[in-house]
Amino acid sequence: MEINNGKITSYYCNIANPSVFSNKSLSFLDLDLDLVKQPNEDWRVVDVEEFETNSIKYNYPLELKESAIQRLKMLKNMAKRKVFPFDETPLKIFKICTLAYLLMT
């Protein structure tokens, strides 16, 4: 998410497996598919070819591929309906955190 002049101007959403914390390190598996919204543009899905290539190269199980596609559909639906995090809530949180930081310094 990018914020400029008090407005959310872009989003970049990765489809990934949940993060795993193990042995003092955090890791996750990026499944290549991304949902992107640039200023003055419509939402678009990127890296579909990369997803297809990597699903063959790394032998993604069918369940993993289906789950990634389902999560992408869910994310697109959330963006279309403008529900969190695609509403104004992140902007409000950002403003509160900025104010709190300024008051503490």
SSE blueprint and pairings:
Elements: E1 2-4, E2 7-16, E3 20-22, E4 25-27, E5 30-37, E6 44-46, H1 48-57, H2 62-81, H3 89-104
Antiparallel strand pairs: 1-2, 2-5, 3-4, 5-6
Describe the 3D structure.
This protein has one domain: FomD-like (FomD barrel-like fold). It is built from three helices and six strands; from the N terminus they run ββββββααα. It has helices spanning 48-57, 62-81, 89-104, and strands at residues 2-4, 7-16, 20-22, 25-27, 30-37, 44-46. The strands form two sheets. The protein has a four-stranded antiparallel β-sheet. A two-stranded antiparallel sheet has the order 3-4. The two termini are 25 Å apart.
A few lines on this structure:
With 105 residues, the chain is an alpha+beta fold.
Which keywords apply here?
single chain; 105 residues; alpha+beta; FomD barrel-like fold; 4-stranded antiparallel sheet; two-stranded antiparallel sheet; 29% strand; globular
Level of helix content?
40-55%
Measured distance between first and last alpha carbons: 25 Å
How is the CATH topology named?
A: FomD barrel-like fold
Number of strands: 6
In the predicted model, the low-confidence regions spanning at least 5 consecutive residues are none
Give the class from helix and strand content and strand pairing.
alpha+beta
